Structure to design on (698 residues):
């Protein structure tokens, strides 16, 4: 099992001196960024993840005196617990003393991080577009293959086109890099010994919802939708690009703190985490939360570990019992994960 | 003035032996591909364009005995009249004796063509993605600058993702190439002597409508919408990429033969041509047609020719008088063509 803890929208500022938003009247006194830190420690201890992914708005730049210090404090629990972690930018990380580029440069220089600045030798929009490969079990034939691929993308902050209002989006250059990376990983997985029949599944992490997050009605998803989907005002096609690539089984975002649902569209699960940070808007009485993804490997009859069998998810609430809610299977090998070959497609068309 | 004649959906097959679709009862006898040819000659003589653009479904492969011969016959009027021409693929061109790649290779080898196979040194989806630069008036300072840019893209045939039904789309790799090309052209136009304040306007030509063509109601456009918009079932974001790039003022397509409107969305005119071919579905009594785009240059008080001032369009009908209809201005310099600088944008945000 490989477990990823997603931490969305910490909105960290100056620590103890930074108050909480949207908590119950009796919780206001003494509530600060340190509550965010305390929850993060609790959920890390409870879940013991293999990787922590911070999906943006890690700090709330506008309220932070020193962006680098805020980021250090925000990420500290992962480092202290000696976990490996990765981060992408949200739309608020760059509002303090560091530019968007500066924040990402700071992140990639921090301890234990697997974050990267951007792919080398590629002209690409944004800061913090990279992928991670999760190897098979050591000592097995898949030890040197990536059985699970993780993509991290910078979904921007605001639109950079003056006559388009609203939030940023994942640009064509980023999508072209993603597509090429995905196809290359799929080719290696299938063609290099030991050859695999199907590509390895993948997960994508970024901050701002795609317009397709608006495709669901309450009966279509698990979790809640308590606010509108704050996607950009135009569709830049990343959902289509993921569908085309075929390996991404689920995309995980933040941005809308009081939405925490997962809904499935055209074979891809679109999942919110729900906000974790106390210095971020929320809903008083509705617990701050984090999303866990657990990836199970297949085991042959003879006991050999194989590729990924299933991907599950649940959320942990910052209540007295760290309650687990909304456990569900996001993907099972064989159920909908099969990629048809070109020949099969042509036959069926 | 620089004039482009757009020829959409000729659906050419075997010439005289290939009959007409959807003509009036009295027109059926003797009607064939040669009527398509005759109309093309008429409209070329009437308009004397500087460039003819064939926007796909140039031939109807399934009914063609020899795809290369059909293509030669279809394009012949442009060559005979000694015009320069460019072509993109539709969704039917490859249904005959040549593959999609084969059709495009044939097109780029034909006489007088400015078509190109694909950009060099770039991995790109599809066949026939290229751009053309239209230089300023000879003897003026702009003689060596491209005052008008034309983009040609392969919008595919059918979806290549088995669980997505319907038509193809412009992929991330094509969009990344388009975006880079556009930014590079804009940079040259603004930074190289004689420096220009605003980027040169651009036009895009491809076959299949973007989902954004469905954004209009009858009061929003000029022309008619007599059938539904046959765009792909998902949005691959090319409209957004064009908006981001900022130079494209109008996109011209075919595919839906009995739609011929232009509507403006977020600063970009989205225009159908209306079908030209007689061996293509149409509407009996509703004339086959072609779209003309006329680009005017600015002239200083001292009589020096400058960059593009305005872009106009109209359609020519294959009736007795080659009637001109739906004349309109697509773009005027200064009206909506101005690109704000990053600094201006930030100020206003």
């Amino acid at each position: 099992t490989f477990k990823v803890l997603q931490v969305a929208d910490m909105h960290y500022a100056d620590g103890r001196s930074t108050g909480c938003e949207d908590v119950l009247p009796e919780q206001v006194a003494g509530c600060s960024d340190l509550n965010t830190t305390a929850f993060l420690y609790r959920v890390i201890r409870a879940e013991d993840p293999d990787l922590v992914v911070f999906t943006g708005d890690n700090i709330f730049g506008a309220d932070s005196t020193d962006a680098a210090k805020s980021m250090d404090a925000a990420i500290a629990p992962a480092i202290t617990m000696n976990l490996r972690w990765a981060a992408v930018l949200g739309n608020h990380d760059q509002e303090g003393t560091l530019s968007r580029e500066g924040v990402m440069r700071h992140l990639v220089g921090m301890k234990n991080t697997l974050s990267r600045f951007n792919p080398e030798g590629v002209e690409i929009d944004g800061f913090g577009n990279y992928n991670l490969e999760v190897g098979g079990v050591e000592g097995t034939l898949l030890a040197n293959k990536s059985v699970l691929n993780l993509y991290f993308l910078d979904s921007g902050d605001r639109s950079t086109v003056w006559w388009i209002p609203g939030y940023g989006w994942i640009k064509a250059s980023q999508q072209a890099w993603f597509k090429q990376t995905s196809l290359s990983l799929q080719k290696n997985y299938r063609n290099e010994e030991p050859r695999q029949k199907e590509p390895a599944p993948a997960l994508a992490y970024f901050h701002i919802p795609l317009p397709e997050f608006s495709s669901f009605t309450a009966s279509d998803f698990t979790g809640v939708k308590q606010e509108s989907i704050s996607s950009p005002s135009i569709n830049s096609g990343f959902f289509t690009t993921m569908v085309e690539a075929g390996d991404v089984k689920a995309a995980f975002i933040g941005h809308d703190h009081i939405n925490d649902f997962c809904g499935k569209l055209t074979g891809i699960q679109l999942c919110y985490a729900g906000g974790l940070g106390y210095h971020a808007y929320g809903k008083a009485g509705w617990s701050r939360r984090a999303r866990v993804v657990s990836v199970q490997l297949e085991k042959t009859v003879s006991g050999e570990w194989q590729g990924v069998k299933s991907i599950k998810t649940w959320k942990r609430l910052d209540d007295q019992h760290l309650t687990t809610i909304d456990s569900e299977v996001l993907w099972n090998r064989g159920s909908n994960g099969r990629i048809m070959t070109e020949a099969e497609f042509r036959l069926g068309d």
User: Anything to note?
Assistant: Residues 2-348 of chain B form a domain with the Purple Acid Phosphatase; chain A, domain 2 fold (CATH 3.60.21.10). Residues 336-349 of chain B have pLDDT under 50 and may be disordered. The helical segments of chain B are 25-28, 33-47, 67-80, 100-108, 172-191, 238-245, 342-348.
